[in-house]
Amino acid sequence: MSVAEDTSIVWDGVARGYKPSTPPLIPGAPEHLRLYTGDQRGSEIDPIVYELIRFGLLQANQEHGITLQKLCVSPITMIARDFQPSILMADGSAVVLGPYLQYFSNLLTLSVQWILENYSDTVGIRPGDMFLANDPYIGTAHQSDVALLCPIFHEGELFAWVGNMVHHSDVGGPVPGSFCPSARDIWEDPSPFPPIKIIEEGEIRDDLKRLFLRQSRLPVNAEMDLFAAIGGNNVARRRIEDLNDRHGARSVHAAMHRLMDAGEQSLRAKLEAIPDGTWSEVAYNEAALAGDEGIYKYQINITKKGDRLIIDNEGTEAQAGAISVTYATFVAASLAAVAAQLCYDLAGAFGGAYRLIEHRAVPGTLSCSEWPAPASAGGYNVYMVYGPAMAALAKMMAAGDAEVRRKAMGVPLTLWNIAVYSGTADDGSYFVGPDVNGLIGALPAGSVRDGLDCGGQVHIPEGEASNVEDYEDAWPILYWYRREAQAGAAGAGQFRGGCGFEQALSVHRAGSVSLDLYMNEGFAKTPGVGGSNPGGRCFTRLSGGVDCADRPLQFKGSPVQLEDGDVVTWNWPNAGGFGDPLFRNPDAVAIDARGGQLDATVAAEVYGVVLVPEGEGLAVDAAATTARRSEMSDARLAAAEPPRVSSPSTESIDDGASVPFGPHLHLGEGPDGPAWVCAECRTVLGSGRENFKDGCAVIETKMSELGNAFADEGSQTAIRVWFRSFCCPSCATRIGTEIAREGEPYIWDIRPL
Amino acid sequence: MSSAGTADQFWIGVDIGGTFTDLVALSTAGKRYVTKTPTIREDVGAGILEGINKLGREIGIDPSSLLASTARLAHGTTIGTNLVAERRGARTALIATDGHGDAINIMRGSGRVQGVPIEDLFHPQVTVKPRPLVERNLISEIKQRTDRNGDRVVSLDQSQMRSIIDGLAGAGGVEAVAISLLWSTRNPEDELAIAGYVEAEYPHIYVSCSHSVAGRVGEYERTVATVMNSYIGPRSTEYITGTKDALKDQGYGGELFIMQSAGGVIPAEEATVRPIATLDSGPVGGIIGCQVLAGQLGHPNVIATDMGGTTFDVGMIVDGEALVTDDAILDQYRYRTTRVEVKSIACGGGTIARVDPHESAIRLGPESAGSNPGPACYGHGSGLATVTDADVVLGLVDGGRFLAGEMGLDAVAAEAAISAVGEPLGLDATKTAAGLIQINDAKAALLLRQHTIERGYDPREFVLYAYGGAGPVHAFDFARQLGVKEVVVPLGETASTLSAFGCATSKVVRYFEREDTFTVSGAGADLTDAIKDLGQEARDAMGRINGANGAVKVELFALMRYAGQRAHHILVPVPEGGEIEGDSLLASFRGVYEELYGEGVSKVSQEVEVFALRARASIGEMEDDLIAALGDREGGQSAVPAPVEVREIFWPDAEEFLSTDVYDGTALQPGDELRGPASVALAFTTVSVGRTDALRVDAFGNLRILFNQGDEETV
């Protein structure tokens, strides 16, 4: 599946995304800029000194993050910690990543490499400089995420970089909060800034600072957040210089190389435990512009070959409206997915793992847009790359050895449900309020355990939602409730996805307030893994107001004026599940029911578990459950279309002669070559060289018929998207599921080489 | 043993640990008596009385006479911490504002990572949320709502409230109620109304209100504090009241004082109303003990370090006072309380060493072998290579003298475990052990350095106090790297009673806070008056405390930040009388700000504001006199003690074996001086004296390590 790299495409950061040379080409080196070469033989560093430096680097980066949080004033950074500090090698490769927004680190790498390749002999890179940048065609997901990069020199040579990326509350553009869902091109977006040297040899450039702050509706906040970023870099730079003083720059440099090697080695060891193959996932977006009813396809393919991963977007449709993301986002988001699934064991010092990963993006597509596509909505469209990448990786890991399989994790999200309010309080003061309570989040199910309810975000380990009182203190709003969601059909599986939450609010003591950005998905987009249900749908509802009736909302509509008495309700949906819900341990269903998180109807309808009263609570009726599950299996087969490819030459393959490729799927060796086998009843589904789905009984249901958790009532998109269940034709185990636009072929998502 | 004069009065401190209860008595004659008795888990109070008996025998008077002549008895307890850790607290119901009862379970989405080591942060599959403190069916939402200005949006539904409370009380087994309503800090009326109903109708139920337990904005942290307070309330009250009564029966006529986590003691009665003030006060007693000693030794700035088996706890004393913070995390629950800041990291005797497979590098921690199975040398067959094993291999710790010889250490097992770690790297046991100690000590030094520099302090202006089982073994090394002036092993051979000493000697301390915003540009009479008022409030409240004599000392501080910086503040001292000058406040703030975050970072247009005022009120001049008397006793003649043996010890900083004098620490006298390299064996630890250092015993019995006293050059 993977596409060959077209070497004729120019990746310049101008006409399309920026892709650096490997290693970056530094014009004018060495007369204009010399890189510290030191001792690259990292393996020869004393193991004791190495451990001390490693620890020192982790601490420096941690302190950088704490400083950002302390000094910022925008709730999105100060409370939600929508930022990321990193330490990078002289050539821009990230060595140490902070525990905040993971994909930001990968974006910093791109910006540093662009600066090296473009400014070394012109603008110049000198001690005491810092560069600010927010150009999505170079190194950010959207203009709101602003990078500040600080080179560190040792005896006149470029030694390393520290840098951070901070989400600014407003960087301009037509919509308060700077997400512009109706932008048709970049000129209807905030202006992107290619790297500018905002601090020159220790002195802030007042002219450039003013230029940057002039963009914002909240220049005072922007100034404070910018200076917080400067303070963070100052602290981290000092700590690294201190390490150089203590241990010698040679040792620190060697240790950084060795850390890179360790990250690489850690990923390689896991890849070696996985067979070669290609794993894919498709996700559909809607509303390319406000009001649009089109449905748009994104695809991620991950090819594992030897000790390499190749990530491509073949199958993704042409860029459209305001839902495309740039190459930088494609790279950053897919790497963040790899990090979450496979690089969990190095406390953030895993940057070297990326050496084993290659990106091949088809330009001009939704996940690799070309100038002048807008990018400001990249902050939530990024998950159209991250979500499918998480799914493809989970399926890949399900084919690994026992240890790798155990770590596979489902999909947390495919959209960031954000609401942005703006306007005035009753004292006339202006505000822009991005509600990022999505940080309450929900962890997806893994291959051996349930996701955590309100468990935060996988890719923002240290993220934190605000208190209700914090937002009410900052903005003229009032929250009526904020409640944990129920463990219903959304995210159901052998292991269920974590539950999200729901909240409702009104304007309060306000002047004039509008809801500028909101999400009301027509259909759920977060795929389930291994036969589980998908995660839930992000919604926003608006009720009350002058006419006291519900006002229907589009997925991303035009700004809505909020009146006194209007109630805005929105949710964070349950995360995706893992495995067939009929395989869920009935006791786990009973525990959820006893905790009030699930009712007996859902237990019976979704899980086939019959609960009966026992004392003050509920207990499993084992016999009735067995009978109920058997009926449900029969019903599946009765409702299903028979397999497209019928009767393979062999009927079954023994347990010992096959290897896992999913919770309910094995690959065995039959007389005609590799064959797909149902892991539960050993029935052969078909040739391992073909899509296993062709050998399954298939149930297709319109998303619009799956209820409110998965589709918005009356949605014109949900009636054109289908939920497909692929079941074993013999025992009815649901081996796979997919969400597909009408008329699309089955996604061929598991292809062993 | 010497008998006490009949006119002597005593100040007694009691510290109850998991294994031992320590007691210290200070007499007005300037004597210090210590004793130790096993903690009786089922009846902690009985353990205290047993301790008093032993203490009486030590002093030479009968226990009732001892209690009768006791001026003050204060004690530190871990009862609250244990109740939370073991989930043995009261069956607690939570009353929340309608729609917001889930806040305690939502935990702002970050509950799974609070207090989790960085090694687990990137691994969502191993993180979990803590066990709930309140059963889901005991969380009730009540119809009422107040807004940010404290104005009512929805009035309290009285009849619903009564029926909910009646239902909870009737449900049986609800022993405590926590009331935490939105914006109660700006309008406490509804919380008070609900509490009033519970108290009137169900006086046996323990009640806490969030506005009084933790009166700051931020409902999650405030709710956790309130729930914790109620959760530990009934058992803590029973215990404190029981102990108080038992002491009274035995002849003690004074007030019982309890060590609080903010440092300083508070009267028992207050501890029963706000038991959260005592929660997690374990490490605080030691820091306060250091603070008291430091006052006598003329050490205004101290880094207090307690390196035990699993953790390394660090507190800081600046200008004579322990630094405090507003946040605490217990069992992944973050809550709001004023407490002595203790930075705790996984670094101690039990920290496990291993080789990282991807790096071929030695990794130390964060996992710990704990005490069971413990390090390989404990002989329980764990085979786990730990810092203590490395100490044994090098000879820094003598297996035969560990825990005063009560527990032998298995040197063979230690060497085998350490060898196994070094083998893949081609290092022998000695080299590996030395490397592990270097890592351990350098990590400790780095963290201490960061802890001081992060706050704008220079470690060279500090003295380091080292205690805990693994502290004095390594202090010579990490303190030198840090660059501090001197190391003190507080109280020497009786260092294990430091917490009890802290209780006996601590002042009565209370914090008072007022949240109110004053912009610095407009600072004037309003701010001056607010400061005066808060000072007066503190004085009045302190004057009402029984059993605390002496003048009230009040120190006042402005909590300052740039407007909007809610995660940050800088504490600026302000005078109680006199006009407040906006310009000088601003200059102080900006000076510290640039020192911390870099030159130029304060050149912003944002307003600087005072958002809260804090008063720290204390009483305790008598204690100062008493402690000073301890240092006046006879002795102090310079003498050179005789070593009990000479042993070959591998010193990790010198990277070679050196013939080292070994001393029996229990035989050392004030005034004794010895030179390194030396190893001084105490009952619960070993003090390593580096090869260029000297050790002197001062009049208090503190062991003081002075650097660079030998002939060799500084390293």
Structure notes:
- The complex is a heterodimer of chains A (753) and B (715).
- With 753 residues, chain A is of the alpha+beta class.
- Helices cover 25% and strands 23% of the residues of chain A.
- In chain A, the strands form seven sheets. Chain A has a seven-stranded antiparallel sheet.
- In chain A, helix 1 (47-71) packs antiparallel against helix 5 (219-247), helix 3 crosses helix 7 and helix 5 (219-247) crosses helix 6.
- Chain A is globular.
- The model of chain A has no long low-confidence stretch (mean pLDDT 94).
- Chain B is of the alpha+beta class.
- Chain B has 19 helices and 33 strands.
- In chain B, strands 13, 14, 15, 18, 21, 22, 29, 32 and 33 form a nine-stranded mixed sheet that branches.
- In chain B, helix 7 links the parallel strand 9 (176-180) and strand 10.
- The longest helix of chain B is centred in the first third of the chain and has 31 residues, at 219-249.
- Mean pLDDT of chain B is 89; it is low at 1-5 and 711-715.
- The interface between A and B is large, with 95 and 76 residues.
Write the layout of secondary structure elements.
The complex is a heterodimer of chains A (753) and B (715).
Chain A: H1 47-71, H2 75-78, E1 83-89, E2 94-97, H3 102-119, E3 130-133, E4 145-154, E5 157-167, E6 196-200, E7 203-204, H4 206-213, H5 219-247, H6 249-271, E8 277-286, E9 295-305, E10 308-312, H7 327-342, E11 357-360, H8 378-381, H9 383-397, H10 402-407, E12 419-425, E13 430-435, H11 468-474, E14 477-484, E15 501-507, E16 510-517, E17 540-543, E18 560-562, E19 567-572, H12 586-594, H13 600-607, E20 611-614, E21 617-620, H14 622-639, E22 658-662, E23 665-670, E24 673-678, E25 684-687, E26 697-702, E27 721-727, E28 734-741, E29 750-752
Parallel strand pairs in A: 10-11
Antiparallel strand pairs in A: 1-2, 1-5, 3-4, 3-6, 4-5, 6-7, 8-9, 8-29, 9-10, 12-13, 12-16, 14-15, 15-19, 16-18, 17-19, 20-21, 22-23, 23-24, 24-25, 26-27, 27-28
Helix pairs in contact in A: 1-5, 1-6, 3-7, 5-6, 7-9
Chain B: E1 10-16, E2 20-27, E3 32-38, H1 44-59, H2 63-68, E4 70-76, H3 79-85, E5 92-97, H4 103-106, H5 118-121, E6 139-142, E7 145-146, E8 152-154, H6 158-170, E9 176-180, H7 189-201, E10 206-209, H8 210-213, H9 219-249, E11 256-259, E12 265-267, H10 268-273, H11 282-297, E13 302-307, E14 312-318, E15 321-322, E16 324-330, E17 333-340, E18 343-345, E19 351-356, E20 361-368, H12 387-394, H13 411-422, H14 429-453, E21 463-467, H15 471-482, E22 486-489, H16 498-505, E23 508-519, H17 525-543, E24 552-562, E25 570-574, H18 582-597, E26 608-619, H19 621-630, E27 645-651, E28 656-664, E29 673-675, E30 678-681, E31 686-689, E32 694-697, E33 703-706
Parallel strand pairs in B: 1-4, 4-11, 5-6, 5-9, 9-10, 13-21, 21-22, 28-30
Antiparallel strand pairs in B: 1-2, 2-3, 7-8, 11-12, 13-14, 14-15, 14-18, 16-17, 19-20, 22-33, 23-26, 24-25, 24-26, 27-28, 29-32, 30-31, 32-33
Helix pairs in contact in B: 1-9, 3-9, 11-16, 12-13, 12-14, 13-14, 14-15
